[in-house]
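R.M. (postdoc): so does anyone remember the format we settled on? I'll just put the structure tokens first.
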């Protein structure tokens, strides 16, 4: 597949100009969006203030009607049941409220007086039975939702107040008036021509509207407006109105009547001005972009000529030729590159001379390095050989110690076995030999032989090499080591005490750990024998700290002299003399714990003697 050709400098500069133009478009878009949001927020704020003012006007109008009805409810004619007088008083009150009617009804809803009909005319029951029931139940003024009159059959709004007699509600006094009366309240605010206002009752039914009231009155609010009004007492929303027209709407609900005033403006009217402003912004951004691209093309052509003039000098440098001064360049940066090419030509020749010298020095350094590496390899081999010798000496010393332990542990069983054999001969000579005696002696002899065989197995397992780490129980390793040393420790009558504070385990080499215990216990025994301790004692404590197993071995042998404390783990250091010690036991013990098992082995003095402390990870996996 042929390589893809690289774009030209002219193309790159055109892209650069286009990239610089992008922010202009972004800024124009942000300005348009800002103008839209500012216009919308300002419009919503203005509409919300208008809705609040209209709500106050509606509340004031309803409050004035409630006050007038309460005044009428105090008429003495109610106490005497003179409803003819009450009818005349209602006619006087409705003169102040053109188009309104006043109705008096009893608890069943039966009208007893109606200003719309002459007094004495048969009257039906009130159609708004819920309002009548609420008045007699609660005894408080009530502003009803939109309903249709039983007599007039007109869409009405009712305001009911209770009439009390002897402290109880006796009648429902209500003023009803056509819903279009409230339209006059909306017109007093002089809304802009594109705006319209609506009043909704507590059931979100349109009571009146300034535009197309015949179609809207009695209809329920749209679902989108209902959801918005259910969330707050006042707010704004973008909805589709009852006429199917997208509008911006603000609403404010009255706390007194639970009615809601809605102010709306068509979305198209708001967006028309914004579209004009956006068209100007887009035109300006397009003009700026075209000018920038044209200017970029001119500059690209000029820069391309200057860059192409640098190609021949660059090829000359590649061939190792000298480059003279380059003239006729009109761009400062290309002039700087031309000067750099001339300087690079001179530097390359200088670097060639330095390279030759560096190669000679490198060749000499490699020879010296090879000599030093060979010497270090020889030194490493010598150290490995010494370490192998130390390990061999440590194993030989441990083997000699084990042979001595075998001798100690076998001495008593062999003596007992000899006495058993002699007993058979003496019994035969004395005529006391029997089948039972023979079976008893054979049984005891076999037990002694099996005990000696297990001793050999324990020593063989102790020297068995381990290839992989494994988790083992610390107490089990200590018991095994003590069984190997049983004879040599009983000889000086050393009291061994084990204090187990935790059931600790170690991840490592069990036999090597036993060898460390063996070295420390053997050294403790030799010191206490040498110093003739009256009641020799060794205390082995098993514990755990932060997930690591901790084993301390403390004796009462008088401790380690301070002047040799820092040297007891050194190879070939011993205080027993050349015939009694090699000086590699503690050295190998420290190497086993710290190098092979990743732990620590330290020593310190107590009030009675020395204490060795072993800390090894308890159970981690490599």
């Amino acid at each position: 597949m042929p390589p893809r050709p690289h774009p030209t400098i002219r193309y790159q500069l055109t892209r650069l100009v286009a990239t610089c133009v992008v922010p202009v478009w972004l800024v124009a878009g942000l300005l348009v969006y800002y103008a839209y949001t500012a216009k919308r927020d300002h419009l919503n704020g203005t509409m919300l203030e208008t809705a609040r003012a209209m709500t106050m006007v509606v509340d004031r109008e309803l409050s004035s009607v409630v006050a007038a009805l309460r005044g009428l409810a105090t008429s003495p004619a109610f106490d005497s049941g003179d409803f003819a007088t009450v009818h005349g008083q209602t006619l006087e009150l409705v003169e102040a409220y053109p188009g309104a009617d006043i109705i008096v009804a009893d608890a069943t809803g039966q009208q007893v007086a109606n200003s719309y009909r002459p007094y004495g005319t048969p009257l039906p029951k009130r159609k708004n039975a819920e309002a009548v029931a609420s008045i007699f139940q609660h005894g408080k003024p009530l502003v009803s939702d939109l309903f249709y009159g039983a007599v007039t059959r007109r869409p009405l709004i009712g305001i009911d107040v209770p009439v009390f007699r002897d402290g109880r509600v006796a009648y429902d006094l209500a003023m009803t008036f056509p819903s279009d009366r409230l339209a006059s309240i909306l017109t007093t605010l002089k809304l802009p021509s594109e705006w319209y206002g609506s009043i909704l009752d507590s059931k979100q039914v349109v009571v009146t509207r300034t535009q197309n009231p015949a179609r809207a009155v009695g209809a329920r609010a749209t679902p989108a407006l209902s959801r918005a009004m259910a969330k707050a007492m006042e707010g704004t929303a973008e909805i589709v109105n009852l006429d199917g027209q997208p509008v911006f709407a603000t609403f404010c609900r009255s706390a007194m009547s639970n009615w809601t005033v809605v102010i709306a403006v068509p979305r198209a009217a708001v967006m028309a001005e914004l579209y004009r402003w956006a068209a100007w912004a887009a035109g300006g951004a397009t003009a700026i972009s075209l000018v920038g691209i044209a200017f970029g093309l001119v500059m690209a052509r000029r820069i391309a000529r200057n860059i192409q003039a640098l190609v021949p000098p660059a090829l000359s440098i590649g061939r190792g030729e000298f480059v003279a001064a380059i003239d006729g360049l009109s761009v400062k940066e290309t002039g700087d590159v031309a000067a750099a090419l001339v300087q690079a030509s001179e530097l390359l020749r200088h670097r060639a001379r330095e390279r030759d010298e560096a190669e000679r020095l490198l060749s000499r350094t490699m020879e010296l390095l090879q000599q030093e590496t060979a010497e270090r390899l020889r030194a490493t081999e010598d150290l490995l050989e010494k370490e192998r010798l130390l390990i061999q000496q440590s194993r030989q010393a441990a083997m000699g110690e084990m042979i001595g332990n075998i001798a100690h542990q076998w001495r008593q069983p062999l003596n007992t076995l000899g006495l058993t054999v002699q007993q058979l001969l003496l019994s035969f000579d004395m005529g006391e030999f029997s089948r039972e005696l023979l079976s008893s002696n054979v049984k005891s002899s076999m037990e002694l032989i099996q005990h000696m065989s297990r001793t050999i197995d324990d020593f063989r397992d102790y020297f068995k090499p381990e290839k992989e780490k494994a988790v083992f129980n610390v107490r089990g390793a200590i018991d095994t080591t003590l069984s190997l040393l049983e004879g040599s420790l009983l000889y000086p009558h050393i009291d061994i005490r084990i204090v187990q504070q935790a059931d600790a385990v170690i991840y490592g080499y069990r036999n090597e750990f036993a060898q460390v215990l063996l070295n420390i216990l053997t050294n403790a025994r030799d010191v206490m024998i040498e110093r003739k301790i009256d009641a020799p004692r060794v205390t082995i404590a098993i514990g755990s700290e932060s997930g690591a197993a901790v084993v301390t071995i403390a004796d009462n042998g008088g401790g380690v002299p301070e002047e040799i404390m820092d040297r007891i783990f050194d190879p070939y250091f011993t205080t027993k003399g050349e015939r009694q010690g090699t000086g590699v036991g503690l050295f190998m013990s420290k190497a086993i714990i710290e190098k092979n098992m990743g732990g620590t082995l330290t020593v310190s003095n107590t009030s009675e003697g020395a204490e060795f402390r072993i800390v090894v990870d308890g159970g981690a996996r490599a």
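R.M.: ...and that's the designed sequence above, right after the tokens. Also worth knowing: The chain is about 55% helix and 20% strand. The CA atoms of residues 164 and 170 lie 5 Å apart.
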